[in-house]
């Protein structure tokens, strides 16, 4: 009996394993390109956008609590101005630090701890019972928030190919503007509430509630960022090539749904 040999059809060829082509001594720009663009890049842009939004909320918060603080704590117009100014003074006094600290310890680490501390400080300041205490905490908020907000773009862009960085930065910048919509909308609902908790001289009312509410975006962004990797460029700059490769392979795996060991770069 004559048997016709099986034809090498397209379907059968697809079943044959194709050995991946690996590249050695790849420069960083090429390594980033080979991770592809996909779900990881969308997710990190959204996470960094949320962190930028939380920073925007913090930067504009004074404008919505000052009228109530003026009445509740019985402060003068000059004291209102000082309360607004110390937040900016905090940002100015720490501005030269964050680049140095980020280059020493990493962008992600500074962002995580900075956003967490900002949220905690805002949470504590919502319980302030005197003008001086509130003044100190607003200065500290300004001092801290400058770090994460200035590092958002540096951290995020180091995961993107150079051809896309400017575009993604523009998209993420919209989150700051969005905070200018969210903050007045929430303040419009919360500030007019005629409710207060009073006990033995302790008062907690609507403007304090507003501060409490806006402490959570900072802490939530810190929690989410904690689960993301450090910038591979920073990791490579610190001489940790193997760790940088693992980060890049992880990004590749997220985007392609392929195992990390199929990432074609084997050395940088």
Automatic annotation (TrEMBL):
Transmembrane regions listed in the UniProt entry: 34-54, 82-101, 110-131, 137-156, 168-189, 209-228
Domain Major facilitator superfamily (MFS) profile, residue spans: 44-268
UniProt-listed InterPro entries: MFS_dom, MFS_sugar_transport-like, MFS_trans_sf, Sugar_transporter_CS
Keyword terms of this UniProt record: Membrane, Transmembrane, Transmembrane helix, Transport
A Pfam family of this chain: Sugar_tr
GO molecular function: transmembrane transporter activity
GO terms for cellular component: membrane
Entry-linked SUPFAM superfamilies: MFS general substrate transporter (SSF103473)
Compartments where located: Membrane
Membrane topology type: Multi-pass membrane protein
Family the UniProt entry places it in: Belongs to the major facilitator superfamily.
PANTHER family noted in UniProt: SYNAPTIC VESICLE 2-RELATED PROTEIN-LIKE PROTEIN, SYNAPTIC VESICLE GLYCOPROTEIN 2
Protein name: Major facilitator superfamily (MFS) profile domain-containing protein
Source organism: Clastoptera arizonana (Arizona spittle bug)
